[in-house]
Amino acid sequence: MFTLTQDWLRRYYGSKDNQKKDAENWLLRHGKNVPKDKIDAWSYYKHLIEYQPNTPDIVPQCMDAIGTEFRSELEAHSWVNSLRCPTPARAYKEVLELVHPNSILELGVGGDSAISTGIYLAFLEEQKAPRMLSIDYHKLDTVWERYKDVPFWSFEQKDSVQALIDLERMYRDFDLIFIDTIHSYTHTLEELEKSAKMTFFICLDDCDFQGNDFDPEPGGVKKALEVWLEENKDWQRVDLDYGNNVALIEKKVGIQSNGKEGKTYY
Ligand SMILES: C[S@@+](CC[C@H](N)C(=O)[O-])C[C@H]1O[C@@H](n2cnc3c(N)ncnc32)[C@H](O)[C@@H]1O
Q1: Is 31 in the pocket of ligand 1 (CB under 6 A)?
Q2: Is 176 within the bounds of a domain?
Q3: Domains contained in the chain, number
Q4: Is the CB of residue 140 below 6 angstroms from any atom belonging to ligand 1?
Q5: ∠236-237-238 over CA atoms, to 5°?
Q6: Ligand 1 in contact with 163 (CB < 6 A)?
Q7: Which distant-in-sequence residues (6+ apart) come within 8 Å of 148 by Cβ?
């Protein structure tokens, strides 16, 4: 059992001394119907208030949870992160329930966000022999502090495609690969192609995203997914109830990439 405390909230979701003023300004500029008399108290929680437009009462909810017992510390992180980004969190949980992975490769952690990381780790700790590897080409900040002691989690700072190449060379496989990086068309296509060699389930965040202005080719994740599924008939999209902007694809058993039935060898 883990009891949520104010110290814990401040340590992992709080503002550092030099961040409090910026947090106040952030609330004034971007907050959603923030009561004026709450600005000072809320600005102690930089990593909660930045998500206040998603969950307007995120700080009061977390304060009310002080003293509440959670199954574990990871479960408490999962709960907080579900408040920070409720919509994707619901989709990630649905994917976990469908795939039931013991091992996850997460591509794209987010310097201080890591909503997916929090949700996945809490699920995995309940599974047998869990393991999770997270990749991001940026250094982790508060996220590293949150999860560095989780025994079945590791992090590597590198490009996601390079990570996939290295993992394939080591014959590594995963029950689920989660893609949430640069979201450009060409990069996502490469991630899909390489991921498909070491898993039967791939989850893509921002699957309706149509590209960044600076991308070498337009289309983003949306086009990459469409093109890749068209060329790989042995993969199909799974219907999700909460799939709003999150896609899950799975490899079809007994089908070749050209869509023909595969031969079975005994
Ligand atoms: C949208 S954020 C990830 C959000 C995170 N999954 C969450 O749930 O909060 C995208 C992350 O991908 C990382 N990233 C972007 N391009 C990358 C690449 N080519 N290789 C590795 N990481 C990349 C960025 O540094 C950023 O932290």
Answers
A1: no
A2: yes
A3: 2
A4: no
A5: 115
A6: no
A7: none
- Tell me the per-residue pLDDT of 227-257, one tens digit each, with 9 for 90 and over: 999 999 999 999 999 988 999 999 998 888 8
Measured from the Cβ of residue 168, the count of other Cβ atoms closer than 10 Å reads 14
3-state secondary structure of 207: coil
Atom of ligand 1 at shortest range from CA of 113:
9
Q: Per residue in 34-88, pLDDT tens?
A: 999 999 999 999 999 999 999 999 999 999 999 999 999 999 999 999 999 999 9
Model pTM? 0.96
Domain boundary among 70, 100, 121: 70
pLDDT mean over 112-139: 97
Where do runs of H (alpha helix) occur along 43-159? 46-49, 58-64, 73-84, 86-99, 115-124, 142-147
Rounded Cα–Cα distance for residues 1 and 7 (Å): 17
Domain assignment of residue 102, yes or no = yes
